[in-house]
Specification:
Shape: elongated
Distance between the termini: 106 Å
Mean pLDDT: 83
Strand content: under 5%
Oligomer: single chain
Low-confidence stretches: none
Largest sheet: none
Length: 140
């Protein structure tokens, strides 16, 4: 009697085979986060990380795919203050949105009676309470 079952060798069966690796890398390249890409193809989140540690070729492919995915996510992100702050986009639209956002936050935190004042200025050259003589005594 001959054995019709294919022999796989010793150890656990391969869960993350070449086809799943390709699907995973394509998902990451398209802009999915690593955990979401693993969930998308139906494997646990740790499996690709383990494969990247043990297989240097897949590790390099994953690094390249992550860079492409990051670019894809940035391209899909709308121009505005978040893109200016988080991705260093300095286009005119992002710059204006960031300036407008900062001005709005300043206006919210600053009380109305202090809006025109930038601070208190003291004249140190005149008056009996001038700290200059004290500073001269300490310095000498």
């Amino acid at each position: 009697m001959t054995n019709t079952r294919p022999t796989r060798g010793r150890g656990r069966p391969t869960v993350f085979d070449t086809a799943l690796r390709t699907l995973y890398l394509d998902a990451v390249r398209s802009g999915m986060y690593l955990g979401a890409a693993a969930d998308h193809i139906g494997i646990h989140r740790n499996i690709p990380a383990r494969a990247a540690r043990t297989d240097s070729e897949f590790g390099q492919a994953l690094t390249d795919a992550k860079a492409e995915g990051r670019k894809a996510r940035v391209e899909d992100l709308a121009h505005g203050e978040a893109r200016y702050n988080n991705y260093a986009c300095r286009c005119r639209k992002c710059t204006r949105a960031a300036a407008k956002g900062r001005a709005g936050r300043r206006a919210e935190t600053q009380p109305e009676e202090e809006v025109g004042e930038s601070g208190q200025v003291l004249d140190l050259r005149t008056g009996a309470e001038s700290p200059i003589p004290l500073l001269l005594r300490i310095a000498s």
